[in-house]
């Protein structure tokens, strides 16, 4: 039985997790920090799969449209091969940039303070609140 539900696809799950962890202000910084490596790993996996799918589609198009004249360097074949090389170069560049630690964004103290859990902020007395309340 093949599942064709949109809700079972990894890209949808990646999107939902990103929405929950990075948009809702109630999610704590520690949860976001724990999820970040998984987000990068699965995001890179999906990106590599998308590039692979594109390359397979280009190859399939070439095999069906100019299969017999491919070895004669037809213009369509050369263009498709150049596009394939550009896709591979783009993919390698993105994977390189994402995996390098010196390219990662440094979290500012303001972001850490803003991402604190809302419940933690409401249970404590804030420094700006009057002492009697």
Automatic annotation (TrEMBL):
Residues 1-99 form the Cytochrome b561 domain. GO terms for cellular component: chromaffin granule membrane; lysosomal membrane. It is found in: Cytoplasmic vesicle, Secretory vesicle, Chromaffin granule membrane. The chain crosses the membrane at residues 12-31, 38-58, 78-98. Pfam families: Cytochrom_B561. Keywords: Cytoplasmic vesicle, Electron transport, Heme, Iron, Membrane, Metal-binding, Translocase, Transmembrane, Transmembrane helix, Transport. It comes from the Eukaryota. Its cofactor is heme b. The keyword Protein biosynthesis does not apply. Transmembrane reductase that uses ascorbate as an electron donor in the cytoplasm and transfers electrons across membranes to reduce monodehydro-L-ascorbate radical in the lumen of secretory vesicles. It is therefore involved the regeneration and homeostasis within secretory vesicles of ascorbate which in turn provides reducing equivalents needed to support the activity of intravesicular enzymes. This is Transmembrane ascorbate-dependent reductase CYB561. It comes from Scyliorhinus torazame.
